[in-house]
Amino acid sequence: MSKVSNAPLYVTRTFLPPREEYLHWLDKAYASHNLTNNGPIHRELEETLRARFDVPHLRLMSNGTLALQLAIRALGVKGQVITTPFSYVATTSAILWEGCEPVFVDIDPTTCCIDPNLIEAAITPDTTAILATHVYGFPCDVEAIGLIAKKHGLKVIYDAAHAFDVEYKGKSILSYGDASILSFHATKLFHTVEGGAVVLHDAEADKKLCLLRSFGHIYDEHFCLGINAKMSEVHAAMGMAVLPHVEQIIMHRKKSAKLYDHMLEDKVERPTAPEGTALNYGYYPILLGSGQAREQVMTALATEGIFARRYFFPSLDSLPYISSPACQISRSISDRVICLPLYSELADEEVALIARIVVSAL
Ligand SMILES: Cc1ncc(COP(=O)(O)O)c(C=O)c1O
Questions:
Q1: pTM listed for this prediction
Q2: Are 90 and 118 in contact (CB under 8 A)?
Q3: Which atom of ligand 1 is nearest to the CA of 187?
């Protein structure tokens, strides 16, 4: 068994729709002569996604990081924000950029999402929100988090950067909490090259969000401090071209994930999603017994030109510009986890080869 080509094989590979399909949407942008500022393709993508997820408000953003920042701001979150140490750095940096203080709560080792049993002990009079990540698209314990937030009057923001099309108990994972954000970065299974979105459930907060993403003004009337977080027509065009392929992309990923499951069963530990989840197969994380075993596996793969990634490393409580007590479970998982290559063009032979290298390295 071997790789289909000699090219290096990375953890992901951007899905490119057939060129003529992208050009079809670019032609529309040329015809409208409107390349940004809430143009027709932008409006169409926004409404298509809002309806797809059956949520009351969905706004496109220039990226997932600004989506996080503006969701925090639109909801008036201040002071301390309880958050997860096991996520991409943008989850924490958005809190800091918004002038809030991240308070880390350790994770549940099964899902790798924030452990709701530890949240209440971290709440202080300064706490105003919980910002938790659906890691790998595995849903957080949204019911428990919802109850805690209600009891203590906290806002809940979900970083759903990995959770496009994920459903939990029969509805979009984006239906939970006060806000969810998505990333449409080129590495994600649905993408607009760079981009993102904010889902809100409150009409006032949504109105505020629209102002925030567009400099805080409407024509000559200025309302609040804003920023430029708009998505261009060229980016929205890529989204419209990718969207019809999403089901196929997820099906292919599912097939590869099942093959990995089959070949790695009983050989490696794996984080898992809670029951009731319809997954999007965005990532294939495996958990090795030690940091040394993780290093061994990564080296064996790299020798064959296969580059797995440490998602997520480092545990965010250990960032050099943060002072936080150590979250031991998150640190341990960060040390031992890798995500294996998973994308829509990955061949079965390549999945099998990767799995064999993992097993023999162990
Ligand atoms: C969990 C998580 N949150 C936020 C982001 C930031 O998204 P973006 O790259 O679109 O700014 C990412 C990006 O990979 C992510 O993985």
A1: 0.97
A2: no
A3: 14
